[in-house]
Amino acid sequence: MREFIKRALQKLNKMTGDQVRGLLFSAAAEIDRLETVLDSITEGILVCDTENNLVLANKYAERMLPISSFEQGKVPLWQVVRDEKIRDFFEITLQNGDRVEEREFDVEINGTKIPGVSRLLSISVLPLVKDHQVTGSLIYIEDITERRIKEAQLRRAENLASLTTLAAGVAHEIKNPLGSLSIHIQLIQKAMAANKEIYYNAHPSGIDALGQDPRSHFANLDKYIGVVNEEIDRLNRIVVDFLFAVRPMNMDFREGDLNVLIEELAEFVRYELEESDIKCILELDKNLPRIGFDERYMKQALLNLIKNAQAAMEGGGKLTLKTEFLDGEIQVLVSDTGIGIPDGNISKIFEPYFTTKETGSGLGLTLVFKIVREHRGEISVKSKEGGGTIFKITLPIPQKERKLITFEGGEE
């Protein structure tokens, strides 16, 4: 069609009025078709002229950036973009005439179900070339949020798989020697107890050859051995957590109501949260369907998330436990108003042994991740340093149950 229009324009002086009108209708239909194609693409397309004025934006780009209303070819692109970081990026890049590929930006999208949740956009700025001449700029925008989430989930699954291969060795190389150490410490304590009175009786004056109270020597030994016992217990707990993280879980799936489980869990931690000046809020979807889950493991996963939230709100705050039934899936959200997670740590928090706590094993969130995956679910996190954290667990509804839930009746 475009070649036809080009040829027709070359003969414009010889065309009748009806032929010109027909040509205009054809051109309008072609433009409308091209705009429909652009608006149907699930990536953002922006086009600027040589003066960096915005001349074209498809609907995806307008929604994702977002873009204010503009007069075609009259306003520089950066003046209509609302996001400050992207606006500055466009201004510098376009004015310098730079070519940039796949620059990533976190952008908060209007209309998201969870306030403060952002999307990760990849933006490329490329020269628009026609007949070997640069006629403007082409900006390509892609939402890569889900891709990054899947990549992170794959890395976590690979980490768990590598841990599994180490489990047997760890059990023999660490746990058994720790047990032996604990037994011999107990034998030392028994030997000390048997010799205390003998040593005391040998120094009735209360002063030994060094001029010290003989009891002080045993008091120091008791203190040192107590420290050794504490460290043995701590190492044992780490090994137990490690083995729990890598061993297959024997899930006992039983149909139940997640709302009931969360209510019971909230009551269980209520006193402890109140002592920390944390207000617990329940926002439970009354239409939540019953699904099969392992109550023991699901409680453990949610309790770990609650404990993390509590640790992030040392000065008090608000903990929200929320359930939703959306798009055939159950979502459980645990959000807090705590210190948040630095951007550099968000991609690492589910990895084994990663922790920012002085006494943490780094396996708490790894266990949460594994439990959720054993339930065929997914877990993600959104956080802003100083602005709180939201953990979202998504659990699928089996197809059979989904049909029962959405069925509205009919003739038998």
Question: What layout of secondary structure does this protein have?
Answer:
Blueprint: H1 2-10, H2 17-40, E1 44-48, E2 54-57, H3 59-64, H4 84-96, E3 100-108, E4 118-130, E5 133-143, H5 145-201, H6 214-246, E6 254-256, H7 258-275, E7 278-283, E8 291-293, H8 295-312, E9 317-326, E10 329-336, H9 343-346, H10 364-374, E11 378-383, E12 389-396, H11 399-406
Parallel strand pairs: 7-9
Antiparallel strand pairs: 1-2, 1-5, 3-4, 4-5, 6-8, 9-10, 10-12, 11-12
Helix pairs in contact: 5-6, 7-8, 8-10
Explain how this protein is built.
This protein has eleven helices and twelve strands. It is of the alpha+beta class and 412 residues long. The chain folds into three domains: 103 residues, PAS domain (Beta-Lactamase, 2-Layer Sandwich); 97 residues; 152 residues, Heat Shock Protein 90, CATH 3.30.565.10. It has a five-stranded antiparallel sheet, sandwiched between helices. Strand 11 and strand 12 form a beta hairpin. Helix 7 packs parallel to helix 8 and helix 8 runs antiparallel to helix 10.
